[in-house]
Amino acid sequence: MDELGPLEPIPRGGPSWGWQAQRRPNRYQRTGTVQWLAGFAPHLGIAIGNAYPRKRTTEVRHFLEQVLLPAFPDRHLYLIWDNLSSHQTQQAWLSCVKDRISVVWLPTNCPWLNLVEAYFSVLTRTALHNTNFKTTQEISKVLEKAADYLNRNPKKYKWNHI
Q1: What is the Cα–Cα distance from 7 to 139, expressed in whole angstroms?
Q2: Positive or negative, the Cα torsion across 129, 55, 100, 71?
Q3: What pLDDT does residue 87 have?
Q4: What stretches of 67-120 adopt beta strand conformation (E)?
Q5: Which helix (DSSP H) or strand (DSSP E) does residue 60 occupy?
Q6: 6: Cβ–Cβ under 8 A, 6 or more apart, which residues?
Q7: CB 44 within 8 A of CB 158
Q8: Per-10-residue mean pLDDT for the chain, 162 residues long?
Q9: Please, is 69 exposed, middle or buried when counting C-beta atoms within 10 Å of its C-beta (0-12, 13-18, 19+)?
């Protein structure tokens, strides 16, 4: 589990659905940000995500309790987390659900060890490249559609030995 963001509704260039990237305007209106929290099952190639306006302890706990745990009701979950403060403050709550959740803490400055980061790269290329959104709600809807598409066409993720 990790978070993608903050995502602003700004013009983004890049090859996406067309042959050429659209011309990006030189001015845009700031209208807030959105955070995408997602739990990823690399052995299945699927992810469960939800958009939030901020990434605080309350949002992380809501995502764990209301989205991630019900999505995998009979499985023991392993959370691979970085040292974000909203993750660190969950330790008291995690001790209450230690029969369902185990936490693996990543070393500082090692985000590539978490496979959800590779999923976020695919998600942003699928949903956000070559776009010009006006509101954060548009970003949330497009991220949900892209996540649904990627879940309908799953690709298992695995580490390769070099």
Answers
A1: 8
A2: negative
A3: 67
A4: 77-81, 101-105
A5: helix 57-62
A6: 33, 34, 35, 55
A7: no
A8: 85 56 59 90 92 89 89 87 73 76 85 87 88 86 95 86 60
A9: middle
Q: How far apart are CA 86 and CA 42, in angstroms?
A: 23
Residue pLDDT, tens place only, 5-25 = 888 887 666 554 455 555 555
The tokens for 90 are 């969950």
Residue whose pair of structure tokens reads 């209208």 in the numeric block: 31
* C-alpha to C-alpha distance for 78 and 100, rounded to whole angstroms: 9
pLDDT (tens digit per residue) in 81-101 = 887 766 667 777 777 777 888
Pairing of strands 131-132, 11-12: antiparallel
Ordered by where they begin, the domains of the chain are: 2-15+28-152 (3.30.420.10)
Strands (E) across the chain are located at 2-7, 11-12, 34-41, 46-52, 77-81, 101-105, 131-132
